[in-house]
Amino acid sequence: MSPDDPILLEVDNLQVSFATPRGTLHAVQGVSLALEQGKTLGIVGESGSGKTVLSRAIMGLLPRHSATQTGSVRYRGQEILNAPDDELRKLWGTQIAMVFQDPMTSLNPVLRIGQQITEPLKLHLKLGRHEAKETAISLLTQVGIPSPQERFNAYPGQLSGGMRQRVIIAIALACAPRLLMADEPTTGLDVTVQAQILDLLTTLRFRRQMAMILVTHDLGVVATRTDEIIVMYAGNVVERAPTNVLFSRMKMPYTEALLRSMPRIANPSHTRLHAIEGRPPDLIAPPAGCPFAPRCPYAQDKCRNEKPPLVLSDDPGHSYACWFPLNTPASTKVTVPS
Amino acid sequence: MTETLRSSFGPESVLLAPHIEEPPEKKRLGPLFWICVGWIGLIILIAIIANLLPLPNPSFQNYSAPQNAGPGWGHLLGTDDLNRDIFSRLIFGSRVSLVVGFGGALLGLILGGVPAMISGYRRGRVDTFLNTTSYVLLAFPAIVGVLSIVAFWGHDLWKITIIIGVFSGPLIFRVVRAATLSYSTRDFVLAAKALGASDTRILAREILPNILPTIISFGLIAVATIIVTEGTLAFLGLSVQPPIPSWGNMLNESASLLAGGKGQNNPWLVIFPAGAMFSLLFALNVVADKLRSHFDVTEVKL
Amino acid sequence: MVKYIAKRVVLLIIIIFFVSVASFFLVHLLPGNPAVTILGPNDTAQNAAILNHQLGLDKPLIDQYFIWIGHVFQGNLGQSFTTHQTTVSIIKQSFPVDVELIVISQLIAFLVAFPMAMTASRRPNKLFDQVANSTTFGMLALPPFVIAPVFVLLFAVQWHVFPGPASYVPISQNFWSNLHTMLLPSIVLAMGSIVLYFRLLRNDLIATLQEDFITMARSKGLSDRRIMWRHALRPSSVSFLASVGVTIGGLLAGTFVVELLLQLPGLGFQLISSTNQDDYTVVQGITLFVAVAIVLLNFLVDFIFTIVDPRIARD
């Protein structure tokens, strides 16, 4: 595959399941996607939708002894699903990197952050001590950490949550990967800090022409920062579309419900928060039919009995899995788009 | 699905880093457990009915039998250097370990466990005092104390049982107290109290049944530890004296032979008591460990 | 923090006081008349009474205790009735043997348990881990007095790999011979420690390896070895180091056993000989010394911990 080939990452019918005492848990049930160089993909879903498992599976970080992974994941043409660790290690850090969710626990508490940044630099790029330190400090500056010289010697415990997350981003970007996976990078941070981190990611991504996958439960996060969005529910992709298409012409009731549950600044205060009723289904014994049916306000008998396949709509690149998509004569209710 | 253990990533995290401590199958009391229970029971049974069995007198020095013989027809496990039957000595010798082990553990449970329950439940100044005392007592290396006292007081079986039992008191105190503490603040205890139950009743009906698995499992470990202590004493020549057999002093005799020179060496005199001791200790540890992991509700399940 | 240390020092003083009382009374509350013992049963009762008075044994016990403590603080632990050697010099010459035993045995335990734990924690509950767990479990049922005779039988008598009993060579005389004699007893002593170290480290490592920062380190492309050594080992070492003090106390019984079996001239051997000869001054002295040494060691370990990890002080 030539380096100019636009497709960076291809996932084909990826399925991930875990053996548990109660049975096999189907965390990801057949997900396919493609990501081009320099583009951003957002993966959105509730807790338990399988989005984190998906991101980990793509990277190859799932513990092999407990996870069964089938399908195909190709990075620049190279099959990486179930590849042996030493193969993956050539990619980790240098080609693909991950920004983790919890800055508290993702940094080694007993090592200085400078060490944690220079480690991959020395290892992968073979930089000398001095060069590595300079590069690390410059990285710290790029992620917006003040006084990077002093912070270099700090321990993670001495930094605030937002700063730690920036350090994690610095570590991830240290070797200039082409693909960045950001798994809930802002959950747990203050709202103001969240925006800063997301903007930082977007800026860096643009500057370095990286591709990025942004995994989150918050539609608001991906609204303006992604090129394409995948909506996941109970281990399945239920809708996929370029971002603006998704928001303007969404087809899947679940997507609509997600959108509605976002609190809006424009709403008058004390507006009731709209929560989606019910709970996600049991992934060990998935029910027949559409997984969202029990909670869908438009559900009909067909939804409960047959699982809708992912089909293409009229818009290019927009697919959805619903028997009675929104805004079509087939659905019984007509909804006002946001 | 949401039996989570590492919550940093939400309920999905249970899928990402499944807890890999003990796989669930191990929680069953397996066949090994029952074999060990059976073995311990067998040893106890034989020790009790030893007098009824057709065994030669363990102290009888039979000069018509070969000296230091290996296992053979007349003497199942051979004879030692004083022409005594090893098999018989082994069986009668088990009595020492069993009596000291179980007797001492029982004594320790009474001396240490009972105050621990009361003190741990009531708390207050008495509890602080007892707790600090147990801490202080534990600081003294027990083996040295036991050794000195036994050396100067006497080697009788009952004396040794009492001494080692008393010395095991502080540790049992701490364990039982900790277990009591973990239950005494629970709601069901408060409920019983609110219904007017007396302290004794609460201790006996609410707390005791809950800490019983811990007590039994730790008690077995105590038995094993006490057997080791007595065995060590016997090996040092400070437990029951020959001709009364004990596994420890059989090893002591074999040790002097080893020191004496190769001529009088009888490997069986080392192997059989060592093997017997090993089997008993191993069985006790297995039973204690399986019980503990079976009843330990705080261990994380997947 | 200072308050915590002060509390611990007070506790230490109480413990040492208790230990001294216990050492003193251990011998004195028991039947037998030391004077008679010294003179032998064939001497007259009158001489025994005179000696009794001379030794101050007719004074009230409390007074005797304080006299004894007074002597202790002056460095006088009395002398042996049989050899007339001062207890202090007996201790001085025997102590190094024990130190050597402890050092070598812990080193061996370390060198065995560490790699075992690291390998086992990489693939928990798989073959190696199961085997390692079972083996260490088996070691629990092999206390020194059981395994030492077996080892001596095999390695010294049958196969002549190590020297047998009564072949101790002081380290000042010949380094390699000394090592040769100390190796077998050290291995015997190491076994109990191997079990403890292995379990602690393995459990700690498994817990640490599940932490998020380990996954992060993996995603940085670091090798398994590097992750183990650089990232996992340090946070896991804490509980292991904390057990050092406990371990040494537990080694005591084993030390006595191997010293007796192989006739190594350490404190244990001395203690037992003295008890057999009713040489109560020496017994007292050694008991006090050993007990105080262990208490101090534990205190020191605790103290170091508070420095290394200040969180402990807050608990």
Describe it for me?
The complex is a heterotrimer of chains A (338), B (302) and C (315). With 338 residues, chain A is of the alpha/beta class. Helix content of chain A is 31%, strand content 22%. Chain A has helices spanning 51-59, 85-91, 103-106, 113-124, 129-142, 148-151, 161-173, 191-208, 219-223, 243-248, 253-260, 301-305, and strands at residues 7-20, 23-36, 40-44, 67-75, 78-79, 96-99, 179-183, 211-216, 228-233, 236-242, 311-312, 319-320. In chain A, the strands form two sheets. In chain A, strands 6-7-8-3-9-10-12-11 form an eight-stranded mixed β-sheet. In chain A, helix 5 (129-142) crosses helix 7. The two termini of chain A are 42 Å apart. Chain B is elongated and about 75 Å long. By secondary structure, chain B is mainly alpha-helical. With 315 residues, chain C is mainly alpha-helical. Chain C is built from 14 helices and no strands. In chain C, helix 1 crosses helix 4 (61-73), helix 7 (144-158) packs across helix 11 and helix 8 (175-209) crosses helix 10. The longest helix of chain C has 36 residues, at 87-122.
Question: What labels describe this entry?
Answer:
heterotrimer, A: 338 residues, alpha/beta, 12 helices, 12 strands, globular, C: 315 residues, mainly alpha, 0% strand
Describe this structure in a few short sentences.
The complex is a heterotrimer of chains A (338), B (302) and C (315). Chain B is mainly α and 302 residues long. Chain B is built from ten helices and no strands.
Structural class computed from helices and strand pairing of chain C = mainly alpha
Average pLDDT number of chain C: 81
What is the total tally of β strands of chain B?
0
Strand content of chain B: under 5%
- Low-confidence stretches of chain C are none
SSE order of chain B, one letter for each helix or strand: HHHHHHHHHH
Number of strands of chain C: 0
Distance between the termini of chain C: 11 Å
Tell me the number of helical segments of chain B per DSSP (H or I, 4 or more residues long): 10
